[in-house]
Amino acid sequence: MTRQQLVYLYCVADREPELKETEGLADNLYFVCNNGLYAVAGKVEEEEFGQEGLKRNMADFEWVKAKASVHERIIELVMADTDVIPFKFGTLFNTNDSLKVMLEQYGEEFEAILRKLAHKQEWGLKIYCNSEKLKTSFSNDEAEILKIENEIKSSSVGKSYFLKKKKDELIEKTLNERINECGQESFELLKELSFDAHINRLLPREVTEREDEMVLNSAFLVDKDEVGDFQNMVDTLKMYYEGKGLLIDCTGPWPPYNFCGLSREKVQNE
Amino acid sequence: MNNVIAKSKDVTLLEILDRVLDKGVVIAGDMVISVADVDLIYLGLKVLLSSVETMEKLRGSPFIGPMQEAK
Prior knowledge:
The structure holds two protein chains of two kinds. By secondary structure, chain A is of the alpha+beta class. Chain A has helices at residues 46-49, 51-58, 61-79, 96-117, 131-139, 143-153, 157-192, 205-208, 227-241, 264-269; strands at residues 5-13, 29-34, 37-45, 84-86, 92-93, 120-129, 196-199, 213-223, 246-254. At the A-B interface, strand 1, helix 2, helix 3, strand 5 and helix 4 of A face helix 1, helix 2, helix 3, helix 4 and helix 5 of B.
């Protein structure tokens, strides 16, 4: 008896995917077809991806990094010739038959999602803030801050203490205003050029491993014909904010992870 | 047209983890691996969700609320 294997689902496509190029990334990559939908899957070991194994391995950051990268690369390869619905890391089935049952069950939903995604790409935009740099950039041109600075120079020790406090508060307030302005403006300008857009939760420094703090984490679904305009707008924003302590980081095209949600009712019924 | 904006390697790993582990279609296959189990990674990464939420509250993020509703 061979070791127990599980079926790992990567993505669903509406055209027969070419799987030759994916060789070497994962063993035994294949697809399961049902009613014109193709689920791209691979065999994995139960020991590694079963409930116990997965729990154990998820605590191993190196393992997660390696497997998450494979997950992404396989979907990107399939995405090169067809629209795809990317699945979350660790979507597992016991058998091909149970995967097929799922395809049958969600078939109409998947088709609707694929119709929505046709001829579109996901792009990501994250903005990072270097507070000190941003503070420096506005401290010299904010009239109110300059006014307090002048008052401090001509004040008694006691009075200047409170004025300094007031100045610090004003700087913090302005900092938050500038961050929000940048985030809101960037998001809204790019949303105008997109079919759909989402704001995601911010990731802390432990994850980003950057000194600058993340202040916007967003994703856009962009028509392929609009990608040029979208990128021009990103470049314009980058240029505008360059040297002002706000770093704009745009990546893509990505599989549309952020734009293929199943309707809530369906998920709740499961 | 692909990759006009280069994916630098470090950014890519963060971006991959941000998407692959957190987004994508969620279906509990026919196994009992709940999404909650997969979310354990965030604990492994020392990203306590509560601390992320706290950070967002501190930041105030006034632009996040109305825009999310508008989507």
